[in-house]
Design goal:
about 130 residues, alpha/beta, 2 domains, four-stranded mixed sheet, 5 helices, 6 strands
Length: about 130
């Protein structure tokens, strides 16, 4: 069995029920309730796609990219300027990513996702106290 020697770019989008991912280059499409489930399903779908060609896909063959424009449209509560300030990124640059005018590098994507996760963590730690 041969191993694929290139990366398969999977574009990730947020849906009402979780996430979806697709490849523009190959007929690979999948969904998942969580990112972990999505990644596992994408791995399985990619292997099914190449099964007849006797090509094995490894986790390293899959490269996931988030559609930031669609992500920020879905999560309107996330303010791009606030996020940019929080992660030390130029707000205009983040705005260009959000509007789909530019694509962030892998490093920039990780920085943005880290900031989003930080905000999520902070929000999950808040306990509101109701007083009469």
């Amino acid at each position: 069995m041969k191993t694929l020697r290139k990366k398969i770019k999977m574009i990730v989008e947020k849906t009402n029920t979780g996430f979806s991912a697709f490849s523009e280059e190959y007929p690979i499409y999948t969904t998942g309730r969580t990112i972990t489930e999505l990644m596992n399903n994408a791995f399985e779908a990619a292997n099914l796609n190449f099964e007849e060609e006797n090509i094995k896909i490894t986790q390293e063959n899959l490269k996931f990219e988030i559609d930031f424009k669609q992500f920020f449209q879905y999560y309107k509560v996330l303010n791009a300027k606030f996020l940019a300030d929080k992660i030390g990124m130029n707000p205009t640059l983040l705005s260009q990513y959000v509007q789909g005018h530019k694509k962030p590098s892998e490093t920039q994507t990780e920085k943005i996702l880290y900031g989003i996760h930080q905000i999520g963590q902070e929000l999950s730690e808040i306990n509101l106290i109701y007083r009469h």
